[in-house]
Write a structure and sequence with these properties.
Blueprint lengths: L3 H11 L11 E7 L2 E9 L4 H4 L11 E9 L7 H16 L5 E7 L7 H5 L3 E7 L3 E3 L5 E3 H6 L13 H5 L5 H8 L2 E2 L3 E8 L16 H5 L4 E2 L2 E2 L2 H5 L7
């Protein structure tokens, strides 16, 4: 494990979003030849009350979200899947109360989760994603960022808060209109890895076959729609 003061600068430099998740609390570093070349960050989900109900009988500390994964181009092929497997084994050993891991693939900006499928994650949701806004200056912001900090001053709002421009409501459309932003089209895919296989039997939503991704036209890589064959031809993926 590595401290956030080392993990976060790397994530800002190499993750497609350029941003960290503030409640990430567990950071793993991938090192080769004496240098850091990858970071995987875990933490509680931002909407934990909603997520915990996906698997029956889960305790409050019984799951984690893999919310950031970023690598440079130095590591060999398949390093991402190798590192995911290693970090999950460490979590299983050091935090036995954690029974499953959730993560989301952002087809609007990145990919549809090829790396998760390679690591035996279960696909549990595919939905159109209208929660990512492209600002006029080229920055991107997710709806959950605003919902989790509605009273914080926002630079794109000239120092005003989300609540100030929405009348104290969670009004995403009003925000997008105010900043002159554009909703990025695409899909969000939700994946779960069961550290404890018994918890897979407790899943309260259907498991979705991977073939459904192409059926819906949800196959994405770096924000572009691609087929399954094209996805498999790519060697590096980010969460």
């Amino acid at each position: 494990m590595i401290p956030s003061k080392i993990a976060n600068p790397f994530i800002r430099a190499h993750h497609y979003s350029g941003k960290v998740v503030n409640n990430s609390c567990l950071h793993f570093g991938a090192f080769l030849d004496g240098r850091l070349h990858g970071v995987l960050s875990y933490g509680p989900s931002l909407d934990k009350k909603k997520i915990i109900g996906l698997v029956d009988g889960t305790t409050w500390d019984g799951f984690l979200e893999l919310n950031r994964m970023a690598f440079d181009d130095y590591l060999p092929r398949n390093s991402e899947s190798y590192c995911i497997a290693k970090t999950i084994r460490l979590i299983r050993k050091q935090a036995p109360q954690v029974k499953w891991i959730i993560s989301f693939a952002d087809g609007c900006s990145c990919g549809d989760g090829t790396i998760y499928r390679a690591c035996n994650f279960v696909l549990t949701d595919i939905k159109r994603n209208d929660a990512l806004c492209l600002l006029p200056n080229g920055d991107k912001i997710h709806k959950m960022t605003l919902h989790s900090n509605p009273t914080s001053p926002r630079p794109e709002l000239g120092g005003r808060t989300f609540y100030e421009v929405t009348g104290g409501k969670y009004d995403w459309d009003a925000y997008v209109k105010e900043v002159g932003g554009t909703i990025l089209p695409g899909y969000q895919l939700r994946y779960i890895y069961f550290i404890d296989p018994e918890y897979r039997k407790r899943l309260k939503v259907p498991e979705i076959p991977f073939s459904r991704i192409d059926e819906l036209g949800a196959g994405m890589y770096k924000g572009q729609q691609v087929s399954q064959a094209e996805r498999h031809a790519e060697s590096h993926f980010e969460q």
